[in-house]
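User: Sequence recovery, please. Input:
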C-alpha cells in the first residue's frame, strides 16, 4: 500500500510476516482460495424440460399429432397454443435464471494482504485461508476474518444483520464477508473463504430456485389430472364408436374413412381440455406484469401477480420501507439560560467538520439558516471511539457535543433530571445527543480527554426520516384487512416509537417485543406472533422463522426488505418485495421489486393482483363449461353410437368467439374484490349447470335432427349439415354462458357479448371462413329445426341456472 498506512507505520511493535508464497500456493492447491462457483439451481435444459414436458402439452400434442397423421391439418390449429404457452413460460423463467446468476453479495474488488513481510495487492479470488488481510475504511470485507489488531475499525453490517447502527470491531472480534468498513483500519486473519464464508452461504441459500405457489395453476392442473384419467379411455371408446358409424374397422381402413373417425374422436378430447385457460392465465399474468412495470414495479415471476391477491399478512422491514435510512434533525431543547441563536450557532460549528457523519449532515441541513463560523480556533473531530467532538470558537467559547452518557460520565454532578429527559426522548424513538459548554480550553490531540467542568446546555434530538407515503399506505392495508408487522434489527423501543408515528395499528398502541425472547419452536412462535405488531433485534434466521410461523397459522405472507439479511425471509415468504435501492442479493430473490423504492406502490400492486384473480375466476367458468359439456357429449356419443356432432375446427371457431377472445377482454376489466380460497370449487359450481344443459341440448339435437329431417348420417353431405346444425346450437349455448359470465350486461359487457354473437353469425356467411371451418348453413326445414334447437337450449339453460340458484340458497 505505497503512500498509505501500512503495518509498519501503524503497528511498528507487531512483527508479522503473514503467509509465505509457498504457503499460498499450498492453500490454493488445497482448494482454500476465496473462489465461489456461482450457478443457479436450474439449467437451461431443466427450464425448457419443465415447461415443455407438462401434462397439458402432452395431451394437446398427442391430439394434434393424431389429427396431422390423418392429413386434416385444419383440424389441428388448436396445437398452436402449445407453442405460445410454452414460450411464455420459458421466457419468464430464463429471465429469473439470468437474475439469479447475477446474484452476488460481494463486490469483486482488490484487497491488500500481508505476505512474506510485505503488503501486496491481490484480487478478490486471490485471498486464501490464513491470509493477513487489511481492512480499510471504504472496503467491503471480502472474506470472514478475526481482528488481530485494530485502529478504530467500524463496520456497517446492516445488509447482513439489519442493525442500522455501525459496529465497533476490536481485537478478537469477527468480521463477516459482505460488511463494509465505515471508518478506521484493522489487520485480520482470514478464517473462512469461498463457499464457507458468511456472504457465500447467504448467497447459496438465496439462489435456491423456488417456484411461486399458484392457486389458479393448481386448480387447472387438478382439472387436467382428472381429465387425463377420463380422456385416455374415452378417446379409445370414441375412436371405436366412430369406426362403427362408418361400417367397422375393416371398412374404415378400406375406404379411408378411419381418418374421419379419428378426427371426430379428437374433437371430443380437445374440447375436454381447457387449453385456452392455460394460455389466458399466462397472458394475463404477463400483461399484469407489464402494467406494473409502467408503474416502476418489476414482477420477476408471473405467478407472483396472483399471490398479490391472497396476501393477508405483510411483514415490513423498518429501514428502507417505513424509513428511508436517512437522519433528520428534530429539535434543540434548551437546558440553560443561553440564547437559542447562540446554541444553534455552537451546534452548527461543532457539527460542521470536514468529513461530516450522517448526524452532522442532518444538523447542518436542519439548521441551514445558520452559517458555520469561517474561523474556528481549535477542533477535536468526532471519533466513534470517543463518541464526542468539540470546538473552540473565535470568542474563546468551548463546546462539546456527543452521547449524553459519555459526556456526563466524568462530571461531578448527578444530572438526574437531564438523564431522565434523555431516557424519555430515547423511548420515543429519538436519537438524543448533548451539547455542553466548558470554561476549559479544548486540547486537540489524539489523547484528548473530557474536562470535569462541563455544563449541559441543550439536548439535541434526531430521528430516522420516515417516508412521506408510509402512513397512508399502512392505513390502506388496514382497511383491506391485511395485518402489518414491522420487523427490524434495531432496538424494539425505537422501532415501536416509529410504528406509533405512522399509526401502524390505527388508534391503538402497537405491541412491541424483543426478538431475543421469542420461542424457537415454530408453533409456539406462531401463537406469540398473533399478539405482536413490532419486533426488534431480529436476526436473519428469525425473520425466516417468523414467516414460517405465520404460514403455520394459514396466512399468506408478503415480506419487504432491502438488506441481504432480509433475503432468506423474502425467499421463504409467499411474496418477497424488495426496494429498488436494495442489495443486489435481495432484489434477485424477491418476486417483486419496487424500482423507485416507493412504499406507496404496494396498494397498486395488491389491487392489480386482485384484479387478475377475480377476473380469472370469472372467465375460468367459461372454459370449464366447455370441459363439462365436451365430456358429457363424448360419453353420450359412445353410449348411443352416433357420429360425433361437430369437428375439432368447429370447437375451435366456437371456442374463440364464445370463450377465448371474450375471456381475454373480461380478464382485463377493473375488479378489486379480495380473493378468497376455494377457487376451484366456485368455478366447478358455476360450470356444472351450464355444461350439463349444453350437453343435453346438443345431444338431443344430434339424436333427433336426423330423424326429423330423414337424413342418413352415412351421407357426407347430410352429416356435414347435421354437424353444422349442432355447432350452431352449441354456439348459441356458448353465447348464453358468456352472457351469464359477463353480467351485469347494462354496460360495455353487454356490448361485448353482442359483438361476438354478431361476429359468429357474420363469419358463417363469409365464404373463406365457412370453407375453412366446414360450416354448411342449414336452409329451409333444416334451418327451422335448428332454430327450435336454439330455443330449446335457451329454456334448458334458464331452468338450469334457476335450479342452481335454488340449491345455493338452500346451502
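Assistant: Recovered sequence (811 residues):
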Amino acid at each position: 500500500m505505497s503512500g498509505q498506512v501500512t503495518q509498519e507505520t501503524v503497528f511498528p511493535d507487531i512483527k508479522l510476516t503473514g503467509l509465505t508464497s509457498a504457503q499460498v500456493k499450498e492453500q490454493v492447491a488445497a482448494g482454500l482460495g476465496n473462489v465461489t462457483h456461482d450457478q443457479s439451481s436450474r439449467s437451461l435444459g431443466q427450464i425448457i424440460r419443465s415447461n415443455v414436458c407438462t401434462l397439458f402439452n402432452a395431451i394437446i400434442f398427442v391430439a394434434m399429432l393424431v389429427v396431422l397423421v390423418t392429413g386434416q391439418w385444419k383440424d389441428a390449429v388448436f396445437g398452436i397454443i402449445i407453442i405460445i404457452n410454452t414460450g411464455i413460460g420459458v421466457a419468464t423463467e430464463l429471465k429469473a435464471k439470468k437474475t439469479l446468476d447475477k446474484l452476488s453479495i460481494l463486490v469483486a474488488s482488490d484487497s491488500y494482504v500481508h505476505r512474506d513481510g510485505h503488503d501486496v495487492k491481490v484480487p478478490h479470488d486471490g485471498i486464501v485461508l490464513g491470509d493477513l488481510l487489511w481492512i480499510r475504511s471504504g472496503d467491503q470485507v471480502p472474506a470472514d476474518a478475526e481482528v488481530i489488531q485494530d485502529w478504530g475499525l467500524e463496520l456497517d453490517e446492516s445488509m447482513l444483520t439489519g442493525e442500522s447502527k455501525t459496529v465497533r470491531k476490536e481485537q478478537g472480534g469477527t468480521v463477516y464477508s459482505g460488511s463494509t468498513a465505515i471508518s478506521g483500519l484493522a489487520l485480520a486473519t482470514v478464517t473462512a473463504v469461498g463457499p464457507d464464508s458468511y456472504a457465500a452461504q447467504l448467497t447459496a441459500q438465496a439462489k435456491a430456485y423456488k417456484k411461486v405457489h399458484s392457486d389458479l395453476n393448481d386448480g387447472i392442473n387438478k382439472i387436467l389430472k382428472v381429465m387425463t384419467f377420463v380422456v385416455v379411455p374415452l378417446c379409445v371408446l370414441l375412436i371405436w364408436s366412430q369406426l362403427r358409424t362408418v361400417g367397422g374397422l375393416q371398412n374404415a381402413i378400406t375406404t379411408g374413412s378411419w381418418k374421419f373417425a379419428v378426427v371426430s374422436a379428437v374433437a371430443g378430447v380437445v374440447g375436454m381440455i381447457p387449453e385456452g385457460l392455460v394460455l389466458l392465465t399466462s397472458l394475463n399474468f404477463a400483461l399484469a406484469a407489464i402494467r406494473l412495470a409502467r408503474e416502476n414495479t418489476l414482477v420477476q415471476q408471473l405467478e407472483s401477480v396472483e399471490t398479490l391477491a391472497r396476501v393477508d399478512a405483510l411483514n415490513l422491514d423498518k429501514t428502507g420501507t417505513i424509513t428511508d435510512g436517512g437522519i433528520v434533525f428534530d429539535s434543540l431543547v434548551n437546558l440553560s439560560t443561553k440564547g437559542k441563536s447562540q446554541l444553534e450557532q455552537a451546534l452548527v460549528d461543532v457539527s460542521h467538520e470536514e468529513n461530516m457523519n450522517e448526524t452532522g449532515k442532518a444538523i447542518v441541513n436542519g439548521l441551514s439558516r445558520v452559517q458555520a463560523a469561517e474561523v474556528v480556533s481549535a477542533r477535536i473531530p468526532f471519533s466513534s471511539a470517543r463518541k464526542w467532538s468539540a470546538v473552540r470558537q473565535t470568542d474563546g467559547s468551548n463546546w462539546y457535543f456527543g452521547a449524553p452518557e459519555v459526556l456526563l460520565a466524568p462530571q461531578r454532578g448527578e444530572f438526574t433530571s437531564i438523564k431522565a429527559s434523555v431516557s424519555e426522548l430515547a423511548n420515543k424513538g429519538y436519537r438524543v445527543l448533548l451539547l455542553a459548554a466548558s470554561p476549559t480550553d479544548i486540547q486537540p490531540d489524539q489523547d484528548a480527554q473530557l474536562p470535569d467542568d462541563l455544563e449541559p446546555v441543550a439536548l439535541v434530538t434526531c430521528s430516522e426520516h420516515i417516508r412521506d407515503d408510509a402512513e397512508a399506505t399502512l392505513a390502506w392495508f388496514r382497511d383491506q384487512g391485511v395485518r402489518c408487522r414491522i420487523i427490524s434489527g434495531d432496538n424494539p423501543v425505537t422501532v415501536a416509537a416509529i410504528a406509533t408515528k405512522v399509526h401502524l395499528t390505527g388508534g391503538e398502541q402497537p405491541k412491541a417485543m424483543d426478538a431475543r425472547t421469542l420461542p424457537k419452536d415454530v408453533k409456539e412462535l406462531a401463537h406469540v406472533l398473533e399478539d405482536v405488531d413490532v419486533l426488534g433485534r431480529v436476526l436473519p434466521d428469525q425473520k425466516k422463522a417468523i414467516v414460517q410461523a405465520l404460514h403455520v397459522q394459514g396466512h399468506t405472507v408478503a415480506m419487504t426488505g432491502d438488506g441481504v439479511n432480509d433475503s432468506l425471509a423474502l425467499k421463504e415468504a409467499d411474496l418477497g418485495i424488495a426496494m429498488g435501492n436494495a442489495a443486489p442479493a435481495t432484489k434477485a430473490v424477491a418476486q417483486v421489486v419496487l424500482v423507485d423504492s416507493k412504499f406507496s406502490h404496494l396498494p397498486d400492486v395488491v389491487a392489480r393482483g386482485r384484479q387478475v384473480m377475480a377476473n380469472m375466476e370469472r372467465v375460468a367458468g367459461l372454459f370449464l363449461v366447455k370441459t363439462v359439456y365436451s365430456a358429457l357429449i363424448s360419453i353420450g356419443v359412445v353410449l348411443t353410437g352416433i357420429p360425433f356432432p361437430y369437428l375439432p375446427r368447429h370447437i375451435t371457431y366456437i371456442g374463440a368467439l364464445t370463450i377465448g377472445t371474450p375471456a381475454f377482454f373480461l380478464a382485463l376489466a377493473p375488479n378489486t374484490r379480495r380473493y378468497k380460497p376455494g377457487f376451484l370449487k366456485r368455478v366447478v359450481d358455476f360450470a356444472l349447470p351450464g355444461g350439463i344443459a349444453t350437453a343435453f341440448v346438443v345431444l338431443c339435437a344430434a339424436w333427433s335432427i336426423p330423424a326429423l329431417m330423414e337424413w342418413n348420417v352415412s351421407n357426407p353431405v347430410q352429416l356435414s349439415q347435421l354437424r353444422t346444425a349442432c355447432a350452431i346450437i352449441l354456439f348459441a349455448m356458448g353465447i348464453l354462458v358468456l352472457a351469464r359470465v359477463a353480467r351485469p350486461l347494462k354496460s360495455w359487457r353487454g356490448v361485448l357479448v353482442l359483438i361476438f354473437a354478431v361476429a359468429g353469425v357474420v363469419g358463417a356467411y363469409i365464404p373463406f371462413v365457412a370453407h375453412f371451418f366446414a360450416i354448411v348453413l342449414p336452409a329451409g326445414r333444416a334451418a327451422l329445426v335448428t332454430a327450435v334447437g336454439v330455443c330449446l337450449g335457451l329454456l334448458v339453460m334458464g331452468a338450469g341456472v334457476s335450479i342452481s340458484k335454488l340449491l345455493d340458497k338452500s346451502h
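The mean pLDDT is 81.
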